[in-house]
Amino acid sequence: MTPIRHLVVVTRRDCELCEHLLGLLAPYQRAGRIALEEVDLADDPVGLAAYQWRVPVVLEAAQELLWGNIGAAQVAAALGELDAVRV
Prior knowledge:
4 strands; Glutaredoxin; 3 helices; 4-stranded mixed β-sheet; single chain; about 25% strand
């Protein structure tokens, strides 16, 4: 059994790219493959300084996996999946 990966998604309010990414990650979360923590830059001054122009950003163990305009293939590749999880 593959362990659950714990990801932090840095977002911003009213961010279409953020909503799109969260939609792409949802099937992985429902399948029990990932656990998500969402951090809004409005509540994180340190994150704001680091990521304000690059949201959304996906972090795992404080390492950047993905950022910006992220597609399904990029999510699957970053998570080590050969095929995207089906909804």
